Amino acid sequence: MPVYYSEETRLFEIRTDRTSYVFGVNGKGTVQHVYWGERVEAAECIDMLKGRSHSSFDADVDRETEEFGGWGGSHYAEPGLKVEFGDGVRDLKLDYEGYEIAGENELTVKLADRHYAFRVDMHYKVYPEHDIIERYVRVRNDEALPVRIEQAMAAVWSVQGLPDYRMTHVSGRWAGEYQLRRTVLSEGKKVIESRRGFTGPHANPWFAIDDGKSGETHGRVWFGALGWSGNWKIVAEKSTFGHLRIVGGINDFDGAFALAPGASYTSPVFTGGFADGGFGAMSRQLHAYERAHVLPARQLRKVLYNSWEATEFDVQADEQIKLARRAAALGVERFVVDDGWFGARNNDRAGLGDWQVNPAKFPNGLQALIDEVKGLGMEFGLWVEPESVNPDSDLYRAHPEWIYRFPTREGTQLRNQHLLNLGLPEVKEFVLGFMTELLAKHDISFIKWDMNRTVTEPGSAPEGLPVWQKHVEHVYEIWAELRARFPHVEFETCAGGGARIDLGMLRFADQAWVSDNTDARDRLAIQEGFAYAYSPSVMMCWVTESPNGFNGRSLPLSYRFHSSMMGGLGIGANISKWSDAEMAEAREFVALYKEIRGTVQEGELYRLEPLGRSNLAAYQYVGKDGAESVAFVFLQSQHFGSAERRLRLQGLDAEATYAVSQDGGEAVVRHGATLMGAGFPLTLRGDYGSTLLRLTRL
Ligand code: GLA
Fold first, then answer.
1. Could you tell me which residue ranges the Glycosyl hydrolase family 36 C-terminal domain spans (predicted)?
2. Which residue lies with its CA nearest to atom 11 of ligand 1?
3. Domain for residue 126, yes or no?
4. Which residue among the candidates 450, 502, 519, 522 is catalytic per the annotation?
C-alpha cells in the first residue's frame, strides 16, 4: 500500500518505490505540505509540520506551504483556489475534514470551508514504480447561492530547502517548438502559461526544478506536467522565506465562472514526480508512466508517408497514386493524404469546413485511392482540421454564427481562417457528424487532426464553464467518442506543428506531430526538448527534402534518417523525384528502422551528449529487457582534423558482453563496463556526419 495515514502524528505519507511525499494536518486544522523527495521516515518529519512565524509582521509563514490553499486570511501566495460566495464574502477558510483511501493507490483528502457548505477534495493517485503522483481537485458547492470561481488550480507542489531553485521548461514558436530553457528563480513568480486557447508552441505545461547543479546523470529533480490542452498556467513562486510553490491548472485569465448550487467542478490532472538520477532519470520516469498510464492502448508506430511537403494543396489522385507506389517500394506502412483533398481547398484561403471529397481531384472518389493504397499493402490516413473554417467556404456561408466572435467585432483571421465555437452543442454535433460519416464511408485507419490557429475574440459559451474550457472539453469528448466508434483508427494530434501536445491530449492521441520544421538538424533540438517531457514513442519525425524548403540547409540522407529514426519514422519528401540510389538507401533505412523501432519506442532514452555541450549530439535507447540498444550520434562540424571520438554509453549491464556494430559494419564484442567507462571509438567524417551504433547483448 503506497498511502499511509497516522492518527497519532496526523501525517499522510505517499510512498513510491524510491520517494516519500509527506503532508499533514497542523494544529490550526490546515493541511500542510511537509516533505517530498527520497524515502524518509515520515513520522520523523513531524517537526516540519509545526507553524512557522517570523515576526508579528510575518505571523503565518506556514501558510505558504499549504498543500493546496485558497485565498483568504493571511494566505498571500499564489492560491489553489479563489472564490466569491453568494453573499459577497471572498475569504476562503479550508479546514481538514477527513480522508478516504480507495483501492490500492488512491487517496482523497477532504477540505471544507469553516462556514459555507463548500468542499474541496484533493485527489492523489500513486504510481509507485514511476515515483509519480497524479493530483487533481474536485470543488463542490452545496450552498443555496452560486459561488463565483475566480481561480481553481489542479494542484500545488512544494519544493523546500534548496539553496537555489532552477526551473527547466520549454519555449518556442511555430517551427521552433520545445526549446529547452533553464533559469534560476529569484523571489517572486515565474509564470509559464497559454492564453491562446490551446496548449501553445510558445510554452508547454511541463516543468522541472533542481538546485542548479543537477545534470543528466546525477542530482535531485522535481518535475510535473499538466494534462490540459487549452488555457493553462503554471506558476513557480519563490517566497522570501525560501519556499517554492508550483501551482498549476486551467488559466484563471478570463476564466471565472459560477458554480451553481449542488454543482461540482473537477480540475484537470497535474502529474508530479521526483527523480534522484538527474534529468535523464526524470525523462525516463515520465516516458514509462506515459506509455503505461496515459497513452491509449497501443502498438508500435507505423512508418508513414505524408504527401504534404511534396504536393501541398495540389492533391491529385493520380499523383498520389504515384507517390503511394514509391512509398510502398520503400517499405512504408501507412500512406497519409494531408490538407487539400476536400472542398475548394486549393490554397489556405478557401474550403476549410467543407469536408466533402473534391471530385475534380478525386474523379473516382477517395475510396478508389484508398483501394490502391491498400492494394500496395499500406494503410490509408487522412488530414482534417475540424475546428476551423475559411470565410470562403460553404460552411461559413451557411453558419456565420458558428465562429468565435464578439457581436461588435469582426473577428481576427489567422491563416485566413476562423475558429468554430466548439462549445456550441450544434457545432460539436457537426464535427462529430462529418467525422463519423468520413470514417464510416471510407477505409481510413489514421487521422491527423490539425488545429492551425489560436483562439481570438472568444465570445461566450451558452452556459456554465467559460468558453475556453468548453472548447477543450468538447475536443476531448469528440476524440473519445470517435475512438469508441472507430476503435481501429489511430489519431495524431497536430496544431500548426506541435502546439497541442500535453498529458491531456495524449490520453486520446496515439502520436503527435512535433513541429512543421522538418530540417533534421533543427529537429534534433526540437526533439531533444520534446523528449525531456514526452515519450519518443509518440514523437513523429519525417525525412524531407535537402536542401530543406524551410531553411535551405542541405543534409545527407543518412543524417535525415538518423534524426527521424529517434521517434516514429515518417517520410515527407517528394519521393517521385528521388534517384534510384536515394530510393535504395532509403529502403535500407526503413528496413533498419523496423528492426530497431521497438527499442526506440518502448526503450529508455539516455541523452549521452545533449545538444550544445560539444559539437556532438548523441542519444541512446536501451530496449525493454536490456537485450538491444541503439545509439544515434550526430556531428555538427569538423574542426582541425579529428581526434578520435569515444562515445561512453549508458544503461548497459556492466558484466554483460555486447556485440557492437557501427552502421551495419562488422561487430566487435565489448563488456558493458568498457562501453560505459572507456566508451566506443567512433568514425565520423565531414560536416553533419551521423552514425548509428547497434548493441546486442550476448
Ligand atoms: C499544419 C500542419 C502541417 C500541414 C499543414 C496543412 O501546418 O502542421 O503538417 O498539415 O497544416 O495545411
1. 617-695
2. 496
3. yes
4. 450
Q: Indicate whether 588 and 667 sit together in one domain.
A: no
Return the DSSP state at 644. P
pLDDT at 464: 73
| Domain end marker among 239, 260, 293 | 293
Distance 338 CA to ligand 1 centre (A): 8
Site to substitute for ligand 1 among 450, 513, 514, 518, most atoms within 8 A of C-beta: 450
Same domain for 277 and 171: yes
Q: What is the pLDDT of residue 297?
A: 80
Q: How far is the CA of 575 from the centre of ligand 1 (A)?
A: 19
Q: Quote the pLDDT of residue 466.
A: 87
Question: What residues form DSSP beta bridges with 303?
Answer: none
Q: State the CATH number of the domain containing residue 393.
A: 3.20.20.70
CA dist 373 → 291, 303, 337, 489 (Å):
30, 14, 11, 16
State in Å: Cα 495 to ligand 1 middle.
8
Kindly list the averaged pLDDT for each block of 10 residues, start to end, along the chain of length 698: 94 98 96 97 94 86 93 96 98 98 95 98 98 98 98 98 98 98 98 98 98 98 98 98 97 96 98 98 98 93 98 98 98 98 98 98 98 98 98 98 94 97 96 98 98 94 81 98 98 98 98 98 98 98 97 97 98 98 98 98 97 91 97 89 84 98 96 98 89 98
Instruction: Cell numbers for 691, please give them.
Output: 552514425
Claim to verify: residue 683 and residue 587 sit in the same structural domain: no
Query: pLDDT at position 643, please?
Result: 63
Do 502 and 431 lie in a common domain? yes
The pLDDT score that the predictor gives to residue 1 is 80
Do 100 and 180 have their domain in common?
Answer: yes
| CA–CA separation, 649 and 647 (whole Å) | 6
Provide the Cα torsion 54, 55, 58, 62; round to 10°.
40
47 located within any domain: no
Same domain as 619, residue 487: no
Distance 496 CA to ligand 1 centre (A): 5
The whole domain housing 566 covers 304-601
- Of the residues 173, 306, 308, which should be mutated to test ligand 1's pocket, given the most ligand atoms within 8 Å of the CB? 308
Is residue 593 in some structural domain? yes
Rounded to 10 deg, the angle between the 467-485 and 425-441 helix axes is 20
- CA-to-CA separations, 531 to 406, 535, 679, 687, in angstroms, rounded: 39, 6, 24, 25
Q: Ligand 1, residue 448: give the atom nearest the CA.
A: 10
Active site (annotated) includes residue 318:
no
Q: How far is the CA of 476 from the centre of ligand 1 (A)?
A: 21
* For ligand 1, atom 1: residue with the closest CA: 496
Q: Cell 525560501 sits at which residue?
A: 242
In a domain, residue 46? The reply is: no
Residue nearest to ligand 1 atom 7, measured at CA? 496
Q: Tell me, what CATH number does 166's domain have?
A: 2.70.98.60
Picking from 573, 601, 629, the residue at the C-terminal end of a domain is: 601
Do 286 and 319 fall into the same domain?
no
163 & 214 share domain:
yes
The DSSP bridge partners found for residue 134 are 125, 271
* CATH assignment of the domain containing 630: 2.60.40.1180
Name the residue of 339, 417, 446, 515 to mutate for ligand 1: max ligand atoms within 8 A of Cβ. 339
What is the number of structural domains in the chain? 3
Gap between the terminal Cα atoms of the chain: 38
Ligand 1: residues whose CB is within 6 Å? 308, 338-339, 383, 450, 452, 494, 496-497, 513, 516
